[in-house]
Specification:
Blueprint (H helix, E strand, L loop, with lengths): L2 H9 L7 H16 L5 E7 L6 E11 L2 E5 L7 H8 L3 E5 L3 E8 L6 H10 L15 H7 L5 E6 L2
Antiparallel strand pairs: 1-2, 1-4, 2-3, 3-6, 4-5, 5-6
Helix pairs in contact: 4-5
Length: about 160
Amino acid sequence: MKRSGRWHHWLYRGGRPNRVARAMNRAWRVLHSSGLVRCLVTLEVAGRRTGHVISFPLVVADYQGERYLVAMLGPDTNWVRNVRAAGGRAVLRHGRCRAVRLEEVEPALRAPILRRYLDLAPGARPHMPVDRHAPPEKYERIAAGVPVFRITTSS
């Protein structure tokens, strides 16, 4: 494993951010929310237990005219659990706030979205069990374990 890969794994040991990663995520939320970088957003969703709004800096993957959020740490990620508990209702900050609905993509359709995501999110590469240049079959093998959500307008 490359040195940067070890660093990322240390930050998210056990699939959860440690104290350093949480501090870095707070700082990244400012940039992600600003709207200055096209694919960076901050997801705001109600916490499934407290109901308090929780923010997560994420990368938006664009694919075939649609926009998607990918859970690089898998299905047990807090934001995934919160989105599912909220019925897909959330807010995206990218310069301004926008209410959205997140619809989970079925695993059979995730492979090309995952590939696009890894092109856009270099920080996610150490957490994904496939190389970004891998053939589509390898993405298909991991797709069921990596939640992907299509961003739609809130209704």
